[in-house]
């Protein structure tokens, strides 16, 4: 029997997450950052920024969708203005975007992360801090870091509110020493 909720520590903050199935034999403690209010994200953004300040990032990058509030909070807390979102929906202006496949643990279908060519100069040869809300299988962070490498970014840090399960370290490779997360949550395997 899988618990209905899980209490997660996210830096200085404790939140209760619903445990929901993502497959026949796996459940996750779902953290929808948009359900936890503005001050939760502001505080988490400040705590990530405190850690990464000494790496002197020049721009913060995050994947859509739920990376967006994290990118804004961390950017503000670092005293920066510029941030960049790796998009998931191919809009008309993204026809020639740089693209990497992604299949997050929460997604039913494979998707892509897209880096708008019009924003390449924002990351090329610049000190980039990548942030997200959760890193789980590592598929999203891997696609994002690959895109940023292709764009010539100098990736100085990888920050996340939570890391989940045990799959992600293998994917981070050379960047594992640059990772900082405010908390850890388990996966919940169960019989189907
Ligand atoms: O390590 P992974 O297995 O890739 O999972 C992590 C990703 O999953 C979530 O995004 P999701 O794909 O659910 O999309 P959303 O932010 O658009 O809701 C989360 O925001 C991460 O980006
Ligand atoms: N536990 C989780 N909550 C929200 N998004 C996620 N993406 C991967 N794991 C997640």
Concise structural overview:
The chain has 192 residues and is an alpha/beta fold.
Explain this structure to me?
It is a single chain. The chain is an alpha/beta fold and 192 residues long. The protein has a single domain, classed as Rossmann fold. It has helices at residues 37-52, 67-77, 120-123, 139-150, 168-172; strands at 5-10, 13-23, 26-29, 59-63, 83-86, 98-102, 111-115, 127-135, 154-164, 179-181, 184-185, 188-189. The strands form 3 sheets. Strands 4, 5, 8, 9, 10 and 11 form a 6-stranded parallel beta sheet that branches. A 4-stranded antiparallel beta sheet has the order 1-2-3-12. The radius of gyration is 16 Å and the shape is globular. The relative contact order is 0.19. The model has no long low-confidence stretch (mean pLDDT 95). Adenine (ADE) binds at residues 28-31, 104-106, 134, 136, 164. The site of adenine has 10 residues, from strand 3.
Q: What is the fold's blueprint, element by element?
A:
Blueprint: E1 5-10, E2 13-23, E3 26-29, H1 37-52, E4 59-63, H2 67-77, E5 83-86, E6 98-102, E7 111-115, H3 120-123, E8 127-135, H4 139-150, E9 154-164, H5 168-172, E10 179-181, E11 184-185, E12 188-189
Parallel strand pairs: 4-5, 4-8, 8-9, 9-10, 9-11
Antiparallel strand pairs: 1-2, 2-3, 3-12, 6-7
1-O-pyrophosphono-5-O-phosphono-alpha-D-ribofuranose is lined by residues 63-67, 104-107, 132-140.
CA gyration radius, whole angstroms: 16 Å
| Helix proportion range | 25-40%
Can you tell me the CATH architecture?
3-Layer(aba) Sandwich
The number of E-state strands comes to: 12
């Amino acid at each position: 029997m899988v618990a209905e909720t899980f209490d997660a520590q996210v830096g200085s903050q404790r939140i209760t997450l619903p445990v929901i199935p993502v497959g026949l034999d796996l459940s996750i403690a779902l953290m929808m950052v948009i359900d936890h209010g503005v001050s939760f994200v502001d505080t988490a953004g400040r705590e990530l920024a405190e850690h990464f300040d000494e790496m002197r990032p020049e721009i913060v990058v995050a994947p859509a969708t739920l990376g967006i509030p994290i990118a804004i909070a961390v950017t503000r807390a670092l005293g920066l203005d510029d941030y960049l979102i790796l998009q998931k929906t191919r809009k008309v202006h993204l026809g020639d975007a740089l693209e990497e496949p992604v299949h997050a643990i929460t997604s039913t279908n494979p998707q892509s992360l897209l880096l708008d060519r019009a924003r390449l100069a924002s990351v090329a040869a610049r000190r980039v801090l990548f942030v997200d809300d959760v890193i789980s299988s590592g598929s999203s962070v891997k696609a994002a870091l690959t895109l940023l490498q292709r764009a010539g970014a100098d990736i100085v840090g990888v920050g996340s509110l939570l890391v989940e399960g045990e799959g992600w370290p293998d994917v981070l490779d050379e960047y594992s020493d640059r990772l900082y997360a405010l908390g850890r949550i388990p996966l919940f395997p169960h019989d189907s």
